[in-house]
Amino acid sequence: MKLNPFAPSSQTADIQVEAQIEMQPQGFLLTFELSGPGVAKVLLTPKNAKPGRKNDLWKETCFECFFGVGNSKEYFEFNGSPSGDWALYSFNQYRDAMKDVEFKNGDTPVLLKCEKSAEYLCCVWQVPYFTRTILQNASLTAVIKTGTASENTSYWALNHAGKKPDFHLRESFIHRLF
């Protein structure tokens, strides 16, 4: 599925972003692919020797998936960094009551692959199932940094429902899971 930049600009003109979500017996497989000459400028956090849960990943290049609970305002947010660090949060409704989601049996998200060349970047995450609630829809998103200034950060999503970049808007969760 093609992700679109919130505000097309010279920073986003030479990058294409594709994302996929697959449901597998052990969890979700999330794949994010960037292609084009602009990939050479994408800043990545170095690989962490001991990746784990970490907050504020969205302040750097980060890949995300928002999962909406059926017939509810409740949703979940997964963040995955090319470093291997990750975060998973639950919300009661729009940006309300954010909590870390704990995994059963010691399972945690794993960065299966992160490969980068001058014109291609691919990151693949395995995210174990984390809830028994019915997840109805999702939104795949990305924060792409090509420099340290704020204007060098672009926000990508399947759909941008707001007047500013806001991945938490349920109207943006347009991919049906079931």
How would you sum up this structure, described in words?
The mean pLDDT is 94. Strand 5 (75-80) and strand 6 (86-91) form a beta hairpin. Strands 1, 2, 3, 4, 5, 6, 7, 8, 9, 10, 11 and 12 form a twelve-stranded antiparallel sheet that branches. With 178 residues, this protein is mainly β. The chain has a single domain (2-176), classed as Immunoglobulin-like (Sandwich), CATH 2.60.40.1190. It is built from no helices and twelve strands. The protein has strands spanning 2-5, 16-24, 27-35, 62-69, 75-80, 86-91, 99-100, 110-117, 120-128, 135-145, 153-157, 175-176.
Topology diagram in text:
Blueprint: E1 2-5, E2 16-24, E3 27-35, E4 62-69, E5 75-80, E6 86-91, E7 99-100, E8 110-117, E9 120-128, E10 135-145, E11 153-157, E12 175-176
Antiparallel strand pairs: 1-2, 1-11, 2-3, 3-9, 4-5, 4-10, 5-6, 6-7, 8-9, 10-11, 10-12
Summarize the structure.
The chain has strands at 2-5, 16-24, 27-35, 62-69, 75-80, 86-91, 99-100, 110-117, 120-128, 135-145, 153-157, 175-176. With 178 residues, the protein is an all-beta fold.
